[in-house]
Amino acid sequence: MTIHQEVHLKSTPKDIYDLLLNSARFQAMTGGRSAHISTHEGGEVSIFGGDIEARNLELVPNRRIVQAWRSRQWAEGIYSVVRFELEAEGGGTKLIFDQNGYPRTAHASLHEGWPKMYWEPMNKALMHH
C-alpha cells in the first residue's frame, strides 16, 4: 500500500522545508495543536498534539525530508515512511509526496488526510507568510 501525491505550492522550496520543520510555524498552520519538531537527522517529531510521532531519517535542506511516521492509533512499533521531495517549478514548488508501510486499514483516511491536514493548510500558511 502506497500513497503518491503531487501538489504545487506557491512558495520556495526553502520556505516549505522550513514550514515542515519549524515547530512554531507548523503548530500555527495546524490550528495550534502542539508540535515539537527536531531539525536534525535522527531527531524526534511529535505533531498534532502528539497524535503523530515521527523520527527524521534523512534531511536534505530545501530538497527532501524523509521520516519514519506513525499515528498513535496504530499498533506499537508500526511505522510508515513518508518522503517530501521539493522541486522549484514555475515560481513555486512542486512537492512530491510518498508514503508506504502503513496499516492497510489506514489507507483511506491517510489518502484523504494529507490534502486536508497538510496541503490545504500549507497553502494558506504560505500565502500569509
UniProtKB/TrEMBL annotation:
* One Pfam family it belongs to: AHSA1
Q: What is this protein called?
A: Activator of HSP90 ATPase
Q: Which residues form the Activator of Hsp90 ATPase homologue 1/2-like C-terminal domain?
A: 12-124
Instruction: Describe the family membership recorded for this protein in Swiss-Prot or TrEMBL.
Output: Belongs to the AHA1 family.
Q: Which residues cross the membrane?
A: none
User: Could you tell me the superkingdom of the organism this chain comes from?
Assistant: Bacteria
